[in-house]
Design a protein that fits this description.
Order of helices and strands: HHHHHHHHHH
Distance between the termini: 41 Å
Helix content: over 70%
Largest sheet: none
Oligomer: single chain
Structural class: mainly alpha
Number of helices: 10
Bound molecules: zinc ion
Shape: globular
Length: about 300
């Protein structure tokens, strides 16, 4: 029952997130006008606007003009529903669930807007930080330096809220400064922006919700994902180089050829491939919410 409720709740949120993801980059209001068909402009009746169901019943087409409706709406509703189910099974009907459900509802539009237009709106990250700080007073931020320094006092009913708030603020500041520094180093080394200030503000938001360690984990997981995604692309460009080298009439030593194929394609991949880092951060942050503490604990036990 709890799971079903969480799923339905997630679908409704997902339906709203669709509106945010579509309208924000177009600078349209998210409350007015009501949803309408993008092709014929007719308003969508409530019975044609039921998450998942309407899309299936109408087979992905507008009732009036028959224009195709992007399956992405369906996918984002389903994604949000599934995320809420995972959170409900992990945290039960608790304040933790509320906190992380809101967090996911901030992460999903950030992920898709970054994917679409390579921007991470301040209109989401700044209020997100405020909500994260406020929630630290209700739900303790996963272990940070303030709670660690306080020792047993961290459990004291008089203090824990204060310590949790301190860890939330510290997590935001330290994670943002860290990522900003990495960005500067990258720029110094490659003379190219690896990430923008949007990513820095986003990780600050993540820090307010998850604290410093899980924010660090988020960056690490996102970086690994970014690398994994870029590998097939590198392989593709490498294949192309090998083919071109085969046709080339220029005389080159084996070593020169190998260098051209391996490094040349690597540089080319780095040039054409602009990772929407915010998208990777969002996915990594949700992974950190669900399994981060176990991952950190496992890592410390191996150490
Ligand atoms: Zn239509």
């Amino acid at each position: 029952m709890l799971i079903l409720n969480a799923f339905l709740f997630g679908l409704v949120f997902g339906s709203f997130l669709n509106v945010v993801i579509y309208r924000w980059p177009r600078q349209e209001s998210i409350v007015r006008p009501r949803s309408h068909c993008l092709a014929c402009g007719r308003q969508i009746a409530w019975y044609d606007n039921i998450p998942l169901l309407s899309y299936i019943l109408l087979r992905g087409h507008c009732r009036h003009c028959g224009a195709r409706i992007s399956p992405r709406y369906f996918a984002i509703e389903l994604l949000t529903g599934v995320a809420f189910v995972l959170l409900a099974s992990e945290f039960g009907p608790t304040a933790y669930f509320a906190k992380y459900a809101i967090f996911v509802s901030l992460a999903i539009p950030l992920a898709f807007i970054d994917l679409d237009v390579r921007l991470l709106p301040n209109a989401i990250t700044f209020p997100g930080m405020a909500v994260g700080l406020l929630f630290s007073l209700v739900v303790p931020v996963p272990g940070g330096p303030a709670q660690w320094l306080a020792g047993p006092a961290a459990l004291d009913p008089g203090y824990w809220r204060l310590l949790s708030l301190a860890d939330s603020a510290f997590g935001a500041l330290a994670a943002a400064l860290g990522l900003w520094a990495v960005g500067l180093l990258y720029f110094a080394a490659r003379h190219r922006m690896g990430m923008g200030l949007g990513d820095v503000k986003m990780i600050a938001m993540v820090g307010t919700f998850l604290g410093f360690w899980l924010a660090v984990l988020t960056v690490l997981v996102a970086s690994v994902m970014g690398t994994v995604i870029s590998l097939p692309l590198w392989a593709f460009f490498m294949m192309r180089r090998i083919r071109n080298e085969g046709r080339s009439r220029r005389r080159r030593t084996r070593r020169q050829r190998l260098k051209r194929i391996l490094l040349g394609s690597f540089h080319y991949t780095m040039q054409v491939y602009r990772l929407p880092f915010g998208t990777a951060l969002a996915l990594a942050a949700v992974i950190s919410v669900l399994w981060g503490q176990e991952m950190v604990r496992w890592y410390l036990s191996v150490l």
